[in-house]
Amino acid sequence: MRITKLAAAAVAVTMAAAPVMADLVFPSLSYRTGPYAANGIPFADGYEDYFTLVNARDGGIGGVPARVVKCETGYNTEKGVECYESTKGEGALVYQPLSTGITYQLIPKATADGIPVHSMGYGRTSAANGKVFSNIFNYPANYWNGASLAVNHILDENGGDIKGKKIALLYHNSAYGKEPIRTLEELAKKHGYDLSLLAVDHPGQEQKSQWLQIRREKPDYVLMWGWGVMNQVAIQEAANIRFPMDNFIGVWWSGSEVDVVPAGEGANGYKALAMHAVGDDFPVFDDLRKYVVDAGTAAGAGDQLGTVLYNRGMYAAMLAVEAAKTAQALHGVAEINPAQMRDGMEALEMTEAKMAALGMPGFGPEFTVTCENHGGPGLGAVQQWNATDKTWSLISDYGPSDMEVIGKLIMEDSSAFAAENNISESCN
Amino acid sequence: MFYREAGEFKTTYAKDQQTFPIALDRWGYFITLALAFLAVPFFINDYWANAVVLPFLIYVIAALGLNILTGYCGQVSLGTGGFMAVGAYASYKLMTAFPDLNIVFVILLSGGITALVGMLFGLPSLRIKGFYLAVATLAAQFFLVWLFNKVPWFYNYSASGQISAPERTLFGQAVTGANAVPAISYLFCLVFVVVLAWAARNLTRGANGRKWMAIRDMDIAAEIIGVNPLKTKLTAFGVSSFYIGVSGALLFAVYLGAAEVGEAFGINKSFLVLFMIIIGGLGSIFGSFAGAAFMVLMPVLLKNIMVGQFGFPTDIAAHFEFVIVGGLIVVFLIVEPHGLAMLWRIAKEKLRLWPFPH
Amino acid sequence: MSAGFYFGVEVFLNGLMAGVMYSLVALGFVLIFKASGIFNYAQGVMALFAALTLVGFQSGQIPFAHLINAVFGTELHHFGWKMPTILALIFTLMVMILFAFLVEKFILKHLVNQEPIILFMATIGLAYFMEGFGDLMWGSEIKKLDIGIPQGGNFWLEEKTATLGGDGFYGFYLDNLDIWATVCAIILVASLVVFSQYTKTGRALRAVADDHQAALSVGISLRAIWVIVWSIAGFVALIAGIMWGSKSGVQFSLSLIALKALPVLMLGGFTSIPGAIIGGLIIGVGEKMFEFLIGAPFLGGATENWFAYMLALLFLVFRPQGLFGEKIIERV
């Protein structure tokens, strides 16, 4: 009896030690704790659930099971470094750092280690220049696209002429919040609107000054680059001063259920940018319910399906899986390594047919990634909150952003980085 | 029995005044140093270096600095994070403005700049005491963080305000940047730690240290016996800030490689370092090491046990981490308010007799 | 008068209101500091914990549901009932009293006569503990707190004053929630004063605040007093948690309001209840006016966080014990 137990234990140990190369490892650097936990939980659930689904339904990616290694960062940079170091040895294929700080941290580290990083709609915007940032991807859209998309939306609403309109940017006073400023300034020159900047210091619980200023200056539109508690307070304050919610547009990190629900009815009509679809009206959710939630293997409580951030996590996982498939096809091996994964991400092509086949028709924009452009085409949509139904819905198609302006800024910033760090621009 | 002072006869002043007068201590110290310099570099890998050892070494320097100010001179400071930010941004500006400047000088100069800033913010300490001073140093913390966030010159006008350390080499080996080998970064930090700890030890034993302690124990009495409070407090702020600046520069350049001021040098850093010196022991060099080890190792250890061994969900493990670390801090303060250094002293005391007590 | 002047007045009024919100947090600090000489950093976390507990009771959440589910594989979330607000308030208060009792029993009792910094550190340890514990107990998602306090601008006032400043001005803006907070603060302070002046326990409290040893020697139980003080601080934390939580939803960041209270304390003095109120008002007005006049137009904004501390520092240079603090007497 004891011997069999020991033998079983030994087998278990070898089993545990052996599959170093027998599965595809996708680390999930989640933040289910700390000040941003409310945002981190649904994203991590979506990310992890999709891999569970792929394993249960398709038997893995190209026949190789995917394994998610979880590590809790609490949105803390130093813990993120620890997570990176502890998971990279397991053969991690791609990192989703999920925080601006950790992304900046990993840009040089992961590049040196040859592991790709996918910072989807966050992180360093100029990483879209793949000639400088060989291992960093930020498709399908980045912050500068976001800024331009918001301006485009305003242009649409005003018949293309916003000369003399006043636009205010309410931003989190950090690297993240400052990202859109330069783009908005460039666009202001082009379209002739007045831009005013309102910084909110971390954490942003007290925004009376900023909102009194908005009330005084009466901008036509307010854009928001907010995060965490700042979002909820800003939306509440906007409702308090009776700012027209239709003219209040948040970036995609300021547009999830948790941001608008605390403000109740007042948040009705609030808009946010979107890089993927919302709601659970897609066939893939039936699969998720069948294979993951009902099977009891869901990462969370299974009640987040269809929320904005769950969908985003799922979308990120889907893109990772598709990139892995591309890599497998490209290199003709099933058990790809990080370098091959990188090639797969660089050759990634998302088409409508592909998404429909996955049960996600129209879930995200169509795009192709190239070596020169790791950021995709910068397509995005606008979503609006309905407080009565408690649902988000897309109110526009995936529209283009002003790549003429943004492209130039990306080249500028990335070449400054290249010069500072002695990187020679190349495409391999 | 195992730890003994008996049988040591010092025949010269030099012998009497050496850093470790007791032979056993001395040997322990040399063996530790030998291990740290000769053995560890061959075993260290990326994980150990980046998750445990580098942060430990860097926080030791910060803890030494704060211990000089708080433990030896009695001025409680919560501005550590802000001063570390000064060190980090100074090193960034120096590295990018003078690409040929040797990295060692960059770090030392950053410390020097921080020392000046620290002395400036130390001025109110002449009027304000105790907790009021602690809260007043928060003004430095918030102001410095705001400043580095606001003025684009500090981050070379980059779009987002993040700073990243370019690669710098020492003797042909990369010390900063992504291509640095863990063993090299480790040795680089270790040299700083050893030199600064040695300096701290001797500073606190000498005239300056005695002045600091006099001010700590009773400032009015110290003034009466001829200690100049202005000079003494400001030297404490200066020296302490130098250490903290060096540690901030190392944290940014060697360990993190990229940083954003609000996140990397927020108020939590100030509390973390204060924790280290209190858990370790106020007014003790060994305590700075022990406290830093405790606060760096504990969370990693807890995480690896709970998630790695018992397979807890990561979020529950993180919550428990908070509960356990918080609980341990309280327990420690109750059991031994003078910190790990005191426990170490008690252990040595016990070892004198053990295993034959009477 | 020009519109600019009235806007200035508006900012001033809002600064006063914000100051009251800070004072609500600062009050809890002062109570505990006075009675036990402990600088209780956990006050902010107590506000978070109280608010979490209140919402938890209100919505019938099962405590530790996430942990239980993870260990036993169950699917628990809610009891399925909703508790009336008043009942939930009472239960929360009971939890806070229990908390005070436990803190006394497991921490304070063992730390008598320690140096202030050790006590301070112990409360930071306690804050860590409570953060983890609160999240374990009630989960870390954002919860909507609604106990019927009206929110949003006061439109009556806005319309009545709209004609004051000409075309560019459209009436004073005041948040209903802030007005309520002010009313609550007034009631709170009044009842605290009545309690400490006219009841036996209150007198005992003041005796302990003045001199521990003397209080002990006339037969006042220090430990009982501590439990009472921490309970009152828990109650104040609950009020602060409700006010701040109604604004932003109840979430982790609520614990950070402690940082807003520190400059208030510094300025008002650690030992004075009126100091906490007046300090709050000065800080609130000061930081809002600075942001309005200098910060936003010239310095790029977001100056409030550090300016509050700088302002307090400025006051301290002239009065090292805060405006209303007890004079620090040093004997050699």
TrEMBL record, chain A:
<comment type="similarity">
    <text>Belongs to the leucine-binding protein family.</text>
</comment>
<feature type="signal peptide">
    <location>
        <begin position="1"/>
        <end position="22"/>
    </location>
</feature>
<protein>
    <submittedName>
        <fullName>ABC transporter permease</fullName>
    </submittedName>
</protein>
<feature type="domain" description="Leucine-binding protein">
    <location>
        <begin position="29"/>
        <end position="386"/>
    </location>
</feature>
<dbReference type="InterPro" id="IPR028081">
    <property type="entry name" value="Leu-bd"/>
</dbReference>
<keyword id="KW-0732">Signal</keyword>
<dbReference type="InterPro" id="IPR028082">
    <property type="entry name" value="Peripla_BP_I"/>
</dbReference>
<dbReference type="Pfam" id="PF13458">
    <property type="entry name" value="Peripla_BP_6"/>
</dbReference>
UniProtKB/TrEMBL annotation, chain B:
<feature type="transmembrane region" description="Helical">
    <location>
        <begin position="236"/>
        <end position="259"/>
    </location>
</feature>
<keyword id="KW-0812">Transmembrane</keyword>
<keyword id="KW-0472">Membrane</keyword>
<feature type="transmembrane region" description="Helical">
    <location>
        <begin position="130"/>
        <end position="148"/>
    </location>
</feature>
<feature type="transmembrane region" description="Helical">
    <location>
        <begin position="316"/>
        <end position="335"/>
    </location>
</feature>
<dbReference type="InterPro" id="IPR043428">
    <property type="entry name" value="LivM-like"/>
</dbReference>
<protein>
    <submittedName>
        <fullName>Branched-chain amino acid ABC transporter permease</fullName>
    </submittedName>
</protein>
<keyword id="KW-1003">Cell membrane</keyword>
<keyword id="KW-1133">Transmembrane helix</keyword>
<feature type="transmembrane region" description="Helical">
    <location>
        <begin position="50"/>
        <end position="69"/>
    </location>
</feature>
<feature type="transmembrane region" description="Helical">
    <location>
        <begin position="101"/>
        <end position="123"/>
    </location>
</feature>
<feature type="transmembrane region" description="Helical">
    <location>
        <begin position="271"/>
        <end position="296"/>
    </location>
</feature>
<feature type="transmembrane region" description="Helical">
    <location>
        <begin position="76"/>
        <end position="95"/>
    </location>
</feature>
<feature type="transmembrane region" description="Helical">
    <location>
        <begin position="180"/>
        <end position="200"/>
    </location>
</feature>
<dbReference type="Pfam" id="PF02653">
    <property type="entry name" value="BPD_transp_2"/>
</dbReference>
Automatic annotation (TrEMBL), chain C:
<feature type="transmembrane region" description="Helical">
    <location>
        <begin position="264"/>
        <end position="285"/>
    </location>
</feature>
<keyword id="KW-1133">Transmembrane helix</keyword>
<feature type="transmembrane region" description="Helical">
    <location>
        <begin position="179"/>
        <end position="199"/>
    </location>
</feature>
<keyword id="KW-0029">Amino-acid transport</keyword>
<feature type="transmembrane region" description="Helical">
    <location>
        <begin position="116"/>
        <end position="134"/>
    </location>
</feature>
<feature type="transmembrane region" description="Helical">
    <location>
        <begin position="12"/>
        <end position="33"/>
    </location>
</feature>
<keyword id="KW-0812">Transmembrane</keyword>
<protein>
    <submittedName>
        <fullName>Branched-chain amino acid ABC transporter permease</fullName>
    </submittedName>
</protein>
<feature type="transmembrane region" description="Helical">
    <location>
        <begin position="292"/>
        <end position="318"/>
    </location>
</feature>
<keyword id="KW-0472">Membrane</keyword>
<feature type="transmembrane region" description="Helical">
    <location>
        <begin position="220"/>
        <end position="244"/>
    </location>
</feature>
<comment type="similarity">
    <text>Belongs to the binding-protein-dependent transport system permease family. LivHM subfamily.</text>
</comment>
<dbReference type="InterPro" id="IPR052157">
    <property type="entry name" value="BCAA_transport_permease"/>
</dbReference>
<dbReference type="Pfam" id="PF02653">
    <property type="entry name" value="BPD_transp_2"/>
</dbReference>
<feature type="transmembrane region" description="Helical">
    <location>
        <begin position="85"/>
        <end position="104"/>
    </location>
</feature>
